[in-house]
Write a structure and sequence with these properties.
With 203 residues, the protein is an alpha+beta fold. Helix content is 72%, strand content 13%. Helix 1 runs antiparallel to helix 2.
Length: 203
């Protein structure tokens, strides 16, 4: 336990600290709950996108044989821009997935297979899904870090700071109570001596 002064000022300071910790703790607990809920929501979005990617892969399997014709379809689109905005959840800055802008190479309708457009669409959908998953995982990382910090603070307040303040208050009150009792006893003794001395002088 930290060394404390056994004074009324220290008692007042400890009581104020206890009030402050007790007032702040519920806000920390609420933040922790919000972060936990957000992690669950992000994990659900990741699972949804992973499942979407799995289905796209199954659909893509139908094109694999066609792609083997060396049509160069995978080179017909490139990522031009990834649109990301900034959000805030419980004080945590998060990247928010908006969209992916592609630049397609001009397709010669006479020299490319009929399935080329559909194949390029499929590739772009796959890229969108993968980028969304990466952004959601970054969200998970940031929210997870904030949750760890918040959990540490909750534990610090609950298990250290609040009990410590309560114990300091108890110790100071006992000390001040003992001091007051001793002061009263000294006062009575001094008064008794004065009374005895006055009586002796009167005699």
């Amino acid at each position: 336990m930290a060394k404390i002064k056994h004074t009324k000022n220290e008692l007042k300071a400890q009581r104020e600290s206890l009030k402050r910790f007790a007032r702040y703790l519920p806000m920390l607990i609420l933040k922790k709950q919000l972060l936990q809920a957000e992690i669950q929501a992000i994990e659900a979005r990741v699972e949804e996108k992973v499942e979407e990617e799995r289905k796209l892969r199954e659909d893509l399997d139908r094109w694999v044989r066609l792609f083997s014709e060396s049509s160069g379809v995978e080179d017909m689109t490139t990522v031009l821009e990834i649109k990301i905005s900034e959000g805030n959840i419980a004080g945590v800055a998060l990247p928010l997935y908006e969209d992916v802008i592609f630049q397609r190479r001009a397709i010669d309708l006479f020299e490319t297979p009929a399935w080329t457009d559909a194949g390029v669409d499929m590739i772009e959908r796959m890229i969108r899904v993968r980028i969304a998953v990466e952004i959601y995982r970054e969200q998970l990382r940031r929210v997870g870090e904030e949750l760890r910090t918040t959990t540490q603070r909750v534990n610090l307040f609950e298990k250290v700071k609040i009990p410590e303040c309560k114990e300091h208050i108890r110790v100071i009150r006992i000390f001040l109570g003992d001091e007051q009792t001793a002061a009263v006893a000294r006062g009575k003794i001094a008064k008794s001596r004065l009374d005895t001395s006055a009586t002796a002088n009167a005699a």
